[in-house]
Design goal:
This protein has 115 residues and is mainly alpha-helical. The chain contains 3 helices and 2 strands; from the N terminus they run H-H-H-E-E. Strand 1 and strand 2 form a beta hairpin.
């Protein structure tokens, strides 16, 4: 039964509904685990919130796939030539500091730019 149910459950993120037997409101999992039935309203709410976030990510970030690759751009990135870039998402930051054993003698010399 699990396999058949999984086959009927299309990806609602793409706007497709589940198969004939699977509701597209987040409660389809109850067919796999009836003990979740008392949490039907919470499942609907969480599903709705997830769908809103996915839509926001699709509309503003170019899709889930592109968004999920943020680690290639943010954090520490070592380039082929040995340069190291560090990016942090802090849209309202005026100043940023990276503190560690490496920075003590250079704390005033470090220059951070906004892009």
């Amino acid at each position: 039964m699990t396999s058949a149910l999984n086959q009927e459950s299309d990806n609602s993120v793409l706007g497709e509904t589940g198969g004939n037997n699977v509701p597209a409101d987040g409660t389809g999992v109850i067919q796999l685990d009836p003990w979740l039935s008392p949490f039907k309203d919470a499942l609907r709410s969480r599903y709705s919130q997830a769908q809103k976030w996915i839509k926001t990510i699709n509309d503003t970030e170019g899709g889930l796939e592109k968004f999920s690759r943020g680690t290639e751009r943010f954090g520490f990135v070592i380039h082929e030539n040995g340069d190291i870039t560090y990016r942090e998402w802090a849209p309202n930051a005026i100043r940023a500091y990276l503190i560690g054993d490496f920075s003590t003698p250079f704390i005033q010399a470090l220059h951070w730019s906004q892009d």
